[in-house]
Amino acid sequence: MAKKAAGAIQSGAANVDRKQLLADALRQRILTMEIAPGAVIDEQELAEEFGLSRPPVRELMRQMAGEGYIELEANRPARATPMGHHVLRDFYLVAPLIYVATTRLAAESARPVDIARLRAVQTEFRAAIEQGDINARIFANDDFHLEIGKIARNVYLMPSLRRVLIDHARVARTYYRDDVSDREELATAAAQHDQIIDAIERRDPETAGRIVQAHMELSRRNMAAYAVPEGMEMPPGL
Q1: 29-36: long-range contacts at Cβ-Cβ below 8 A with a sequence spacing of 24 or more?
Q2: Which residue blocks in the chain are alpha helix, DSSP H?
Q3: Helix axis angle, 157-174 relative to 54-67, nearest 10°?
Q4: pLDDT beyond 50 at 7
Q5: Whole-angstrom Cα distance, residue 101 to residue 117?
Q6: pLDDT, tens digit (0-9, with 9 covering 90-100), for 152-208
Q7: Residue 70 parent element (H or E)
Q8: Which residues have CB under 8 Å from 56's CB, separation 6+?
Q9: 85-225 has which CATH code?
């Protein structure tokens, strides 16, 4: 009986590990556009690829739908969340509000250990730029702003921040240009990250908010040239 129980525990732990591997892989595939917006996600294929039964895959699908990665509708297969004009419009309207709010709050509540974590993420961001690794850069940028959200310690902002970061990553991946102007903008973005950290460390919410707004304006200029629907006016700050 004890051996059976131990075997069941080991099997359960292995299932959890495989489920986490699937979760990580699926998020990465969606963020890097390996799975395109609106594309069908085959539950059975994922179950076979990761050695899982269908129930834990379905459970993960529901979790990721709640996070904003996946769209679930009755009697229809799961799909990666679409990214049409209406989504981009909502992104451009809301993202600056979320980023500025989380950054200002972070500047009011940051502790030394928070600053250390933020600087570690920034080191990864700069390394990805130097190596020319676009996916690593996008993930590090997401981690940077997510870490700021965690420092802000506001349960109402975090779900919105996580949702914004999904489409920020996908838009950045779609409209990336490997040219001189883009590399110059990356250098500016990295410098702004450093300035944001310094302002948060000084507990200076005004400066932190102002820098992150300029940071998002840099991002807006890069993306709007390609992604903004015709005839749409861009709000200031993104």
Answers
A1: 30/69, 30/70, 30/80, 30/81, 30/166, 30/170, 31/138, 31/139, 31/142, 31/166, 31/169, 31/170, 31/173, 32/135, 32/138, 32/173, 33/170, 33/173, 33/174, 35/80, 36/80
A2: 2-31, 43-49, 54-67, 85-109, 112-131, 134-152, 157-174, 180-201, 205-227
A3: 100
A4: no
A5: 20
A6: 999 999 999 999 999 999 988 876 655 555 778 889 999 999 999 999 999 999 999
A7: strand 70-71
A8: 15, 19
A9: 1.20.120.530
Q: What backbone phi and psi angles, to 5 degrees, belong to 228?
A: -75, 130
Mean pLDDT over 11-38 rounds to 86
Tell me the pLDDT of the chain averaged across its residues: 86
Backbone angles phi and psi of 120, in degrees to 5:
-65, -40
Instruction: Specify the fold of 18-80.
Output: Arc Repressor Mutant, subunit A (1.10.10)
DSSP state letter for 40? B
What does the buried/exposed string (b/e) look like for 125-134 if buried means 16 or more CB atoms within 10 Å of the residue's CB? bbebbeeeee
The average pLDDT across 68-86 equals: 91
Q: What is the DSSP letter of 50?
A: T
pLDDT tens readout for residues 112-123: 999 999 999 999
Whether the pLDDT of residue 34 is over 70: the answer is: yes
Q: Where in the chain is the domain with CATH 1.20.120.530?
A: 85-225
- 154, 160, 161, 166: CA torsion to nearest 10: 160
